[in-house]
Amino acid sequence: MITVRKATNDDVDILQKLASELVPSSFKGVLTTAQIDFMLDKLYSQQALSDAIGAGTDYFIATFNGEDLGVVSVIQQGPNLFLMQKIYVNEHYIGKGIGTALFTAVKEYVRSKILPCTIELIINAHNPGLEFYKKKGMQKVRDTGLDMGDFFINEEVYSLELN
């Protein structure tokens, strides 16, 4: 059985553990090891996670049969605009509905805030998870990039309108 809960400051250790396990496998073949390490340090250290929660980022953790196996975050970027970070799921459990449960939790959470609104996602065009988001109705709206300090990553923005 899949359950999804909204994370609190008490879950920072769990969020960091999930990130350290899931981010490298999610970006294998897309980013270099140095880029992944930079991302883990910049976005998923205990301090970065605590700061993000304090600044209004909401994290959701998916549990399958009692084990935490997936995570996603979302932050309000404007009156009717939310940015969803990529959904991370343990690679051995992809296809079991965990990603869908997290995506549904984000949509329900955003709907509870304000309607109509837009959920955006920034993703690398070569990310194997891109097809998942397209199947969920997200459509490409523009190109962008991510400045990761010593390097720049070309990415795309996908969007979903909620009414």
Alpha-beta classification: alpha+beta
Element order, helices and strands? EHHHEEEEHEHEE
The average pLDDT is: 91
| Radius of gyration, taken over Cα atoms and rounded to an integer in Å | 15 Å
Count of DSSP strands: 8
Largest sheet: 8 strands, mixed
Shape: globular
What percent of the residues sit in helical stretches (DSSP H or I)? 25-40%
DSSP summary: helix tally: 5
Oligomer: single chain
Straight-line distance between termini: 29 Å
- The portion of residues forming beta strands comes to 25-35%
Uncertain regions spanning at least 5 consecutive residues: none
What does this structure look like?
The protein has 163 residues and is an alpha+beta fold. Helix content is 36%, strand content 35%. It contains five helices and eight strands. Strands 1, 2, 3, 4, 5, 6, 7 and 8 form an eight-stranded mixed beta sheet that branches. Strand 7 and strand 8 form a beta hairpin. Helix 1 runs antiparallel to helix 2 and helix 2 packs across helix 3. The longest helix has 16 residues. The protein starts with a strand and ends with a strand.
Key structural traits:
8-stranded mixed beta sheet, 163 residues, alpha+beta, globular
